[in-house]
Design a protein that fits this description.
Length: 111
Amino acid sequence: MAVGGASDAQAQRLLDGGVPFQLLVDPDGTLRTALGLDNKLSKGELMGWRSIRNLLVGMFRQRQGKVSRPHTEDRPAIVILDSERRVVWARVGRAVGDYPSVTEILSALPE
């Protein structure tokens, strides 16, 4: 199972892209806060070329109804927990939309 702060449409796009498990949406960031991942991107990171490029892509998608998360300054993060809720893998981004590929995430899953 995965939990994200994105919209239902983004979760559906991930499922359509091959994510083989259930996705839940946490728009208030309750899990993010519980994991200590609620720090924000710096102004330099927000103004960097990767963030600007990803923001432009997001703006295009929003016009198409595919992006609704207004918390652009949130630091992107992916965390994998084991069955005892211990972090076994984490990737914290350094720009808006700086996420690993689905392939990278799936390869990090424990056996």
